[in-house]
Specification:
The chain is mainly beta. Helix content is about 5%, strand content about 40%.
Length: about 240
């Protein structure tokens, strides 16, 4: 089985005991600290009035039996203070959030893979417009319910990678996406120099899928949706996990 499937998890958001929404996320390890990465709007969305107080993530607990999993609950607030980390840049708020995970509270038999700094794009990595990438998550909550694994959507890079599209901290992907994919990693298979520095998880972590991007105004009866999506650059993950 591909190791990257164990680097991604399903997320359910809750207000008390009420299940609000489903989303996607992935694991990132910085030194000895493990983090959950997802879209900020999964944890709070002021415009829509989305205010969960906790999330649950699905974890594998037996490397020999992928059918063995459990839901792990993570509070979003302590004494009224949010526990996630978020960031801003010159373009404003960035739709990425990270939640620290306390390893001592996680199951002893936890089975997962996590991205690290080495998975982030570096100078010399060739990432061209039109390149094929994957968006790995649970669109509309759909997943392999027997093995508790995410599914993959094929995508292409639709704007110049490395440039901030229209001044924002994201690039565009061309893919068919759905609700529930928010927070999914956007990855590319590592080749050449990139593959040489990666072993158990040979993928470049390019972006965090956020949302579909549409044209406004658009004639709903004549014009189809663009089929383009925002993927926030992953340098923000490095910033938010730095301390």
């Amino acid at each position: 089985m591909e190791s990257i499937l164990l680097a991604v998890t399903r997320i359910n958001t809750f207000s008390g005991s009420t299940n609000l929404t489903g989303a996607s996320g992935f694991f990132f390890r910085r030194e000895q600290q493990l983090f959950l990465v997802t879209s900020r709007h999964v944890l709070i969305d002021e415009l829509s009035g989305h205010h969960p107080d906790r999330v649950e993530i699905e974890l594998h607990i037996d490397s020999a039996n992928l059918g063995a999993s459990l839901w792990y609950s993570i509070p979003l607030y302590v004494n009224g203070q949010s526990l996630w980390r978020e960031g801003y840049d010159a373009g404003g708020a960035i739709d990425v959030a990270v939640l620290p995970l306390h390893r001592s509270a996680l199951p002893e038999t936890l089975c997962l893979h996590a991205f690290t700094e080495r998975n982030l794009p570096q100078s010399g990595d060739i990432i061209e417009i039109g390149s094929s990438v994957l968006i790995i998550g649970a669109p509309l909550g759909f997943h392999d319910s027997l093995h508790h694994l995410p599914v993959v959507r094929q995508a292409g890079i639709a704007s110049s990678f490395g440039l901030r599209f229209q001044g924002n901290g994201y690039f565009l992907t061309d893919a068919r996406t759905h609700r529930g994919s928010s927070g999914a990693p956007v990855v590319m298979r590592a080749h050449g120099h990139a593959a040489a520095r990666l072993d158990s998880l040979p993928w470049l972590l390019l972006g965090v899928h956020s949302m579909r991007l549409d044209m406004e105004p658009r004639d709903m009866s004549l014009d189809e949706a663009l089929g383009l999506n925002c993927a926030w650059y992953t340098d923000i993950v490095l910033t938010l996990t730095a301390h």
